[in-house]
Amino acid sequence: MNDALFQTAWSTLANGYAGTPAILPYRTDLVCAPAWGIRLADPTGTTQPIDDYYVASPDDDAAAVLAVIRAVPPMPRAYLTVAEQSPATDPIYRSLGCVYDSSECLMSYDLRQYTPVPPTHHVDTLTVADISPCNTADPEAMIWLNEANVAAPQMTHVAVRSGPRVLARARTLRLPDQTSYISMVYTAPQARRNGYARDLMLALLAADAAAGVHTAVLMSSQMAIPLYRSLGFVPLCTTHIYTI
Fold this sequence. Notes:
Aminopeptidase, 11 strands, 2 domains, alpha+beta, 7 helices
């Protein structure tokens, strides 16, 4: 694995998750080396406080890392994302009291090699006027759009719709280091296998490339890896996510 590419993608993962305009005012970077910690604590109480920790280095001793993390005054919820270094990674963290949540694949795309491909279906780029109807019709029943993010020039939100129905949606956040983090990719179960997710990705990659992004990064479920590979994304590592 390309070490520099992995470190770029890992940084994009953490900053992409906790770097949107809606979240940044409530973000604090935690002192917990060698882990990377981010606290999201909304002082208005409208969202539940959370700590997110990231561990990437193969040289880090799991017990020592967890000791540092657990020394930080805890929030109600805390999650740990670990880059798998060997098949033993997951059993080690479980044995130390981490509760397994899920596994995903960190993937990246070199947009300097990008060749435009038009979507097959019509893809809407969402505006502030779309916030209420799209949240109401979200296929995951999630309030995923808000004005701070939709109005931000560094973000693009897209959807495939049929009348008022949202069939599929996704977003990208462009970061200052010429990387982007693609997330919230979801297709309604009854609308799958129609190519909607592919078309959303084509629209987001086009927007990122036009904005000068060099590297697009995302976290994929195991099921979606073939789709992202077919688009040109490269798997970098398996990640395990725990509650701690």
